[in-house]
């Protein structure tokens, strides 16, 4: 997985570099550059072919749509990852807090109930078994 | 009064129960938490609970993984967490993709280059990509000379951020001198700047040193500092 992504990344980088070089050639075109330009254009097609070939290797990569919003706004997509991790951790802590609170509540409730209704609680414990 | 009670009991007879004509005597899995009671008739009718009371609902099946577990550890994401939580990330997209040429920090909607638009309006695909024929290449025959002003845009590449790893692409396929020279120029520039900075830093250091020495000399000659020991030095 990692290698296919790296391959795609390399291909895209090479493609972008090729486009950048075409930009330089055409921005102040010299007649003797025509051959180089033609080569670069062919390389562009070849680059697209390579990217197309790699398409099947990254089919199972899922990207959250929100990441695209970050990129479209010119923001670092790692900020999205950071936000996600922080939110997940906060939620994890919150839920753990709730679970712990319920556990304590249950223990306290059993203590108090056994004080007030000892017989019923004994029956309850006998029926439950695992309590 | 008593008759009323009996009539009420009759109302809840199995025939009219919402469960249909099933007898309540027939034992069945009870997960609804209904209260099972025995009704004794006679002189002193009484209702005695005979089954488990409503608190004894079947407990929910406990799932193996809950929020009580540290999910970050469970999924082995601690490394990612420590990577992102500690350092302050730079806001700009260019800090994430330092090798990309051009201005990439501006909103994609401005120049119609947003990724959203690719999803909303996917490009036409499915056709085989073939190399251009010589006839097709004729369409790319250009006039010599620079581009008109409106098509020129300043290529503000964050060159200094380029990593060595990616530099290899630049020298491929007959490099382009104009851009290369700018790269080397800027590299030299930064080097010179660094050098100047270093020089200034050294000068500052020397000046401070001289000042210190002067101070020391002054203290030696002052009447307060007669070369004797301070009280703390005495005690030791």
Low-confidence stretches of chain B: 1-17, 157-197, 222-236
The shape of chain A is rod-shaped
Q: What best-fitting shape of chain B do the alpha-carbon axes yield?
A: flat
Helix content of chain B: 25-40%
What value does the Rg of chain A take, in angstroms?
Answer: 31 Å
Taking the sheet with the most strands of chain B, its summary is: 2 strands, antiparallel
User: Roughly what fraction of the amino acids of chain B lie in strands?
Assistant: under 5%
Which structural class is indicated by helix and strand composition of chain B? mainly alpha
Using DSSP, what is the number of strands of chain B? 3
Descriptive report:
The complex is a heterodimer of chains A (131) and B (236). Chain A is an all-alpha fold. Chain A folds into two domains: 1-61; 63-130, no CATH class. Chain A contains five helices and one strand; from the N terminus they run αβαααα. In chain A, α1 (2-27) runs antiparallel to α2 and α4 packs across α5 (118-128). The longest helix of chain A has 39 residues, at 78-116. Chain A is rod-shaped, with a radius of gyration of 31 Å. Chain A starts with a helix and ends with a helix. The mean pLDDT of chain A is 91. Chain B is mainly alpha-helical. Helix content of chain B is 39%, strand content 4%. Chain B has a two-stranded antiparallel sheet. The longest helix of chain B is centred in the C-terminal third of the chain and has 45 residues, at 177-221. The termini of chain B are far apart. At the A-B interface, α1, β1, α2, α3 and α4 of A face α3, α4, α5 and β3 of B. Chain B: Component of the Mediator complex. Chain B: Its main location: nucleus. Chain B: Residues 1-42, 159-236 are annotated as: Disordered.
């Amino acid at each position: 997985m990692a290698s296919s992504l790296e391959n795609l990344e390399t291909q895209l980088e090479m493609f972008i570099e090729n486009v950048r070089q075409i930009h330089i050639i055409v921005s102040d075109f010299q007649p003797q550059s025509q051959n180089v330009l033609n080569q670069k254009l062919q390389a562009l097609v070849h680059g697209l072919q390579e990217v197309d070939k790699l398409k099947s290797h990254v089919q199972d990569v899922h990207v959250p749509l929100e990441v695209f919003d970050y990129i479209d706004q010119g923001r670092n997509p790692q900020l999205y990852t950071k936000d996600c991790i922080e939110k997940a951790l906060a939620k994890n802590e919150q839920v753990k807090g709730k679970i712990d609170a319920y556990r304590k509540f249950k223990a306290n409730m059993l203590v108090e109930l056994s004080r007030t209704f000892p017989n019923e609680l004994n029956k309850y414990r006998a029926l439950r078994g695992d309590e | 009064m008593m008759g009323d009670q009996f009539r009420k009991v009759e109302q809840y007879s199995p025939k009219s129960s919402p469960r249909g004509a099933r007898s309540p005597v027939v034992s069945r899995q009870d997960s609804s938490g209904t209260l099972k009671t025995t009704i004794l008739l006679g002189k002193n009718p009484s209702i005695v609970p005979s089954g488990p009371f409503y608190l004894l609902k079947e407990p929910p099946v406990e799932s193996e993984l809950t929020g009580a577990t540290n999910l970050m550890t469970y999924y082995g994401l601690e490394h990612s967490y420590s990577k992102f939580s500690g350092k302050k990330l730079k806001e700009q997209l260019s800090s994430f993709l330092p090798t990309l040429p051009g201005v990439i920090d501006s909103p994609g909607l401005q120049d119609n280059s947003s990724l959203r638009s690719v999803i909303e309006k996917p490009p036409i695909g499915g056709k085989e990509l073939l190399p251009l024929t010589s006839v097709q290449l004729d369409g790319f025959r250009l006039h010599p000379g620079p581009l008109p002003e409106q098509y020129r845009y300043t290529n503000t590449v964050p060159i200094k951020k380029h990593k060595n790893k990616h530099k290899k692409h630049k020298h491929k396929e007959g490099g382009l001198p104009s851009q290369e020279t700018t790269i080397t120029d800027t590299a030299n520039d930064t080097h010179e700047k660094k050098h100047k900075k270093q020089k200034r830093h050294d000068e500052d250091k020397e000046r401070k040193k001289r000042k210190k020495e002067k101070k020391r000399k002054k203290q030696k000659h002052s009447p307060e500092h007669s070369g004797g020991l301070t009280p703390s030095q005495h005690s030791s």
